[in-house]
Sequence to fold (89 residues):
Amino acid sequence: MQDITNTARQIVGHPQDHLDDTALFTAAWATLKAARGQRFDPARLRAAHLYERPTPPLEPLEQTLDRIARKTRSIAESKGYRLPAKRAA
Fold:
């Protein structure tokens, strides 16, 4: 029983490793609930347990961070915040 519980704990702890079989996550969750003596209603297990594969970024990370920094700085300046001068990279 301990092996089953440990396997279920690994599945529930890392659902991203089991994206192709969501029924496996549901079964693992039910196993952990049963091990604690609790009831399990699969209808209450909402879509929060489903992970989707992330899409590849549309731009390189450095470009994304630079764009976000510029936008954040422009918003802060438009609200009248005094910001320190931009540091050269």
User: Anything to note?
Assistant: The mean pLDDT is 84.
